[in-house]
Amino acid sequence: MGMSVTISSAAAEDAEQIFKLQYLAFQSEAELYGNYRIQPLTQTFESLKEELASDTVLVARLGDEVVGAIRGRTDDKGTGSITKLCVHPRMQGHGLGNRLLRAMEDSLAGTAKAARFRLHTGRKSESNLRMYRKAGYVAVGGRTASDGIELVILEKDAKDAADYAVSA
Description:
Blueprint: E1 5-9, H1 15-25, H2 27-33, H3 39-42, H4 45-54, E2 56-62, E3 65-74, E4 79-87, H5 96-110, E5 116-122, H6 126-134, E6 138-144, E7 150-157, H7 158-167
């Protein structure tokens, strides 16, 4: 009998699993760019625990195992920043990233009253860009991260997220 993946709020005791998952999941991005200094790989455990305490953090669980995670927060201007979406490599390609993204949008729009969502990914990360565009995000700019990676910044209005959820 198979188990289904559930998405819920992360708890403090999930920190170690999220930390290990993030390190594993972002290896392919580091390889793509030939840069193992990307922020998800250099983030400290203490910094991750601080994010767990201050941000909205959702996890995808398969039984007791954390197989996906995403973080977000809404600023005082109503922009929900979504970061560090990661899915275990063996679970990629099955829509779990989309489910986590939609769950975070719902959470930030509901409890944090986000009016728009913003996220970023590397310019060479075609599969990420494809997923975000399919979810209704549009490129609004770019920047070079401190690790030297060229990023694409994408946004969408929260009302568009609700429309996407109805049509998806």
